[in-house]
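Hi all, posting the design record for the shared folder.

TITLE: backbone redesign
STEP: 1 of 1
STRUCTURE INPUT:
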């Protein structure tokens, strides 16, 4: 085992999969000599050249359209979409093409397409570069969605995504990419399977389902509440499509309480879906109302003070937990 940060883990996954499989290539804006927006692609351009690390013009529709064509002809493209806010420019390619073609052709083609995009606020990048759009994306049938929260899963889930024969949206919270802590990562080859949640902290009083950077904040809140005798069980779903609901339901049956903690606007969110599943399938085990701790239903503010208020944090999570445990 060794300790690396989130960005290094992403870079290692790229490097290992490109070495393992010559059909894997990276395409997007600033992926060549620049090495990616945060340097995660490293020296892969120098190693493989333009044949496998392809810089493109500022056109998300062109990036994804050409990636879809490459995927159905046997390649394994990694389409770097930069910010998930920009996915709207390629919405038809996601909504009607990449996620539908295997179904429309009766499974006779494969769609081994990995799309990577930065999500989340915290870098003072305002309304068009700071959104968390998981809820919108998970409404699209045929799309797998990955939300890693640490270096180990960042690498293992990305390698799994690249090898998948279906379209995968791999979302990287920019605070984890920019300044995330180092975590232990195995030295050898490993994959992290889709659809298997991780219980990152066991507890008995409240189940907290948290995603991406909110997992770090949930762990901070757990340490604070532990001093007051409140024990949190924190679950990181890792992938929201497919979603491991059984791990969450089993936890709720044990604790009797559920809080869903994500950095999304609340309406139409993944958090709302988790709450609905728990209400539908674990209602008899609930001892308190289900709570969601999410962002307000507004665009992300540019002003640093307002952005800090907008982002869900430990204080808001602790308040919600105390509200259902007293």
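Okay, here is what came back for every position:
SEQUENCE:
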């Amino acid at each position: 085992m060794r300790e690396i940060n989130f960005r290094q883990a992403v870079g290692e996954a790229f490097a290992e999969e490109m070495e393992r499989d010559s059909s894997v290539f990276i395409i997007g804006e600033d992926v060549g000599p620049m090495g990616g927006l945060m340097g995660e692609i490293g020296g892969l351009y120098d190693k493989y050249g333009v044949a496998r690390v392809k810089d493109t013009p500022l056109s998300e529709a062109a990036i994804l359209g050409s990636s879809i064509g490459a995927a159905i002809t046997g390649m394994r493209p990694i389409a770097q979409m930069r910010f998930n806010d920009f996915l709207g420019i390629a919405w038809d390619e996601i909504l009607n093409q990449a996620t539908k073609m295997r179904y429309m052709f009766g499974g006779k083609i494969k769609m081994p397409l990995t799309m990577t995009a930065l999500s989340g606020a915290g870098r003072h990048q305002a309304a068009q570069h700071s959104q968390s759009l998981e809820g919108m994306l998970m409404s699209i049938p045929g799309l797998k969605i990955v939300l890693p929260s640490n270096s180990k899963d960042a690498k293992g889930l990305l390698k799994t995504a690249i090898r998948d024969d279906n379209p995968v949206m791999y979302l990287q919270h920019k605070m984890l990419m920019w300044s995330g802590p180092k975590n232990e990562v195995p030295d050898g080859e490993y994959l992290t399977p889709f659809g298997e949640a991780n219980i990152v902290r066991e507890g008995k009083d409240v189940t907290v389902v948290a995603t991406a950077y909110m997992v770090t904040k949930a762990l901070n809140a757990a340490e604070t509440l532990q001093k007051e005798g409140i024990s949190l069980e924190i679950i990181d779903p890792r992938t929201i499509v497919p979603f491991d609901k059984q791990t969450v339901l089993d936890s709720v049956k044990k604790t009797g309480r559920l809080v869903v903690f994500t950095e999304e606007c609340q309406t139409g969110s993944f958090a709302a879906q988790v709450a609905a599943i728990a209400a539908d399938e674990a209602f008899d085990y609930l001892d308190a109302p289900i709570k969601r701790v999410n962002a307000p239903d507004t665009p992300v503010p540019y002003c640093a003070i307002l952005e800090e208020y907008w982002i869900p944090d430990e204080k808001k999570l602790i308040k919600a937990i105390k509200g259902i445990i007293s």
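COMMENT: The longest helix spans residues 6-20.
Let me know if anyone wants the other runs.
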